[in-house]
Structures are given as structure tokens and as C-alpha cells.
Task: structure prediction
Amino acid sequence: MNVKNRTLFIADNLDIMQGIDSQTVDLIYLDPPFKSGKQWKAPIGSPAEGAEFKDIWTNEDVKDGWYSEIAEQYPHIHQIIQAAESTYDHSMMIYLMAMSIRLIEMHRILKYTGSIYLHCDPTASHYLKLVLDSLFGKKNFRNEIVWQRASGRAKGSQFESRSLGRDTDNIFHYSKSETFTHNKVTQSLTEAEILEKFPHTDSNGRRYNTQTPLFCQPSMGARPNLCYEYKGVQNPHPSGWRVSKEKLIKMDEAGDIIWREGKRPLRKSYAGQYAGKLIGSLWIDVPIAAGKERTGYPTQKPLALLNRIIKASSNEGDFVLDPFCGCATACVAAEKFQRQWIGIDISPDAEVITKIRLDEASEQGALFSPIQISDVTVTSEPPIRTDTESHATQQKKLPNYAIHKNYLYGEQEGFCNGCRDHFKIRNLTVDHIVPQSKGGTDHPKNLQLLCHTCNATKGKGTQEKLIERLKTQGVI
Ligand SMILES: [Zn+2]
Result:
């Protein structure tokens, strides 16, 4: 991992993730904004860099670079994005493209034993699931967690509407492979469930049941070492007792066995010793962040939600990444369970909120051990990849020129942009008008088609010099 534990990046997460080494992150939780315009900005190196959101989310800017990259390298995602445009609208297409390009990076930096949890709502969830299936593989879809974030009642004007109240979020869990970290997560029983599951009360007021048998089932076969007599009682079948004689004596001395004349003895199982029930994918027991926990951040997720995810899908020392970390709930949960973390948020406010939250959690003793504000590194600089496929080579491969070539061929109507002769498409090459070595980008506005001769003549020179030379040669 080429990023230090406890690093908070204030930047576009795409730029940051492109700088993180492949297969270094154990768990990614993301709660991306949906169509919340201002939080996005143009990719570095694009002509729109530094531009405001509303100026860049147009076909001419974002679409050309990413769209063609996705079309070439991820044709299935390309089809999904197109389908989103025709079935929903253009904004969904733009949203999916922005998400896909980021999910591609997340998939790359995730370890093979890692997991990703994508938190969304039904507006985009079905579209996002297609992208995730395509990227992670349907075999690696683990769960769709449905989290009830509000009470189920429709209120106010919703009574007028003819739909039910919308009170749930969807969290998709995908693993990168079939060998992934999974820790069992249990949940305590409700009051009513305790009464039902543990119907008896002993003299000390402890709830218990007698459902766990003391004898092994005959189907378990003969177990000679568990065949013994105690207080004149023995399993008539050679499958024997459930426990060793020493353990049985201890249980008896503790008063945990009920002896019955002529019947099998019963074992008391106490509610207080119950490990909890395994949780399913419907989460109705995690209330929204409230009271002291509330930071005022609009889409704050409760700590209990992140605690559960982090416990289930990571181990101590693992790296947790939240690329839309907002008010740092995932970072606090990671500290609590001794995980390492990286947070990314485009808003400079995240720095203050993160520090306040970690500080408060430290003071309240909510973290595994208190941390100092100085332990957190805050930066806007993308990391530099140290693995073989560097950021620079990755960038050079993009975008895909085959798509641009067709587009440019149409634009130039088949003529070379130097000598003005007409050529078949295969005899033209894609050229950077301002060479890449001089800072020219892959944006279509910086691309043109030249014939092989003109391309060779231009070399790393400027377009002006090419035209000058062609004039001198009498070509034009
Ligand atoms: Zn030419």
C-alpha cells in the first residue's frame, strides 16, 4: 500500500484512486452522491479542468474521454450506460458513467480477498447493480442489504400520493473473488424474542430454555468415549452424551441440569449466554444517526451501520477505504476496530468534520485507542503508484483511439488534416495536435487524423510547422 494509514485526501476520488497501487485495499465502503452536481469536477488534464460542474457535464467534455474508454475496454458497461440513457434519461447516463469510471478504479485497487459495499437508493440502484455485476462478476454478488433508514409511515403530502413511503436504502455487497474475508455478524434478540426463545425463569430471575439436548442423536453414530453413566443415567443408544463427564459434572454443580424421574435430564440454556442470532440482509435495527452522533452533514450514516460492515468484511490491520467519506463515519468505525483507513472527499469541509469527529470519539473512549489530530495526514496530492503499471503508463493508454478515429473521420470527411488528400480510414492515423510531450491531452478537440506521410512529417512539431513545410514542398 502506497498510502499511509489515516490519510484524508481532499480531492476528486478518481484522481486519488488512480494513484493507489493495485490490490492494496481490503474493504471499500462508498455512499456516493446522486446527481449532486457541484461535488464533481473535471478530470485533471482535460480541457475542462478547474471548470464548474454545470459547464462540464456535457457530451462534448466528459463523455468523449470516458465514454470511449468504457466503450473500448468495458463494452458491457458501455451497453448498460446506453440503456440507462434510453430507459431513464441523459442524467442517469452521465451519473452511471461517472460512477463506472470510479468503480473500475475501485475494482483494481481492491485485494482479491476484499469486499466493496455500495450504498445507494432505489433511484439508481438497479442501474448500478448491472455495472457491479459486469465489473465484479455475478458470482461475486454477495448481498443486497436493505436498510430501513426511517420509520415506515408516509407523512404529510405523501398521503396524497399513490405510492408507499420510501424509507429504505440499498447496500450492495460484492467480493472481488470467492475467497473473501467474512466474519459472522450476530445481533441481539429483542425483548419479545427473548421471552419467546427463553420461556422459563430460574430462581435468580434468569431466562432459560431446555431445547439443547444432553444426549447425542442416534444418527450421530457410536461415540464410545461419551458413553458413561452419571447419577444412574445413561443414553440407551451408543451415541452417548453431548459432553464429557467432567463437563457434565460441572454443569450439574452449577445447577444447569434438571433431573426428572424416569425421563431424560434437561439442560438449561440461558438467554444471557446466547451468542446472538445471525443477521440477514434486512436491517431494521440500525437507527439513523441522532443526538450526539449527529454532525449536521446531510447524508450522515450511523456509526452502527459502518461498525457492522467493517466487522463483517475486514480484520484487524486491514485497509478500509471510503472514497466519499463525508463526515468520516467509516474512519471512526475503522479506528474503533483497529483497521487502517483512507478517506477521500472533494469538499474541504471534510477535513474539519473528520478531525472533530475523531477528536470527540477519542474523548468519549469510542475508539480502540485515542488518536491525536496530528496522526491524520490531510492532503490534496494524489499518491504516486509504486507498482509496475504506473499512473503515467495507465494514462497514456487512454482513451481509446478507435472510437475517436471513426468520429474524426466523419468530422474531416475522410481528408487528411495536413495535405488535404482523401484517404481510406485505415490509411489515416490519430495525431495529437499539441503533442503529449508538450502537454497536449487526449481530448477529442486535441486530436486529428493525418495520413502516414503527414504524421511522419509533423513528428513532434506543431501543426503550424507542418502546414508551413507542406506549403514549402508545394503539397498545398
Ligand atoms: Zn496528409
Summary: DSSP finds 15 helices and 18 strands in the chain. Residues 189-273 form one domain. Residues 35-61 have pLDDT under 50 and may be disordered.
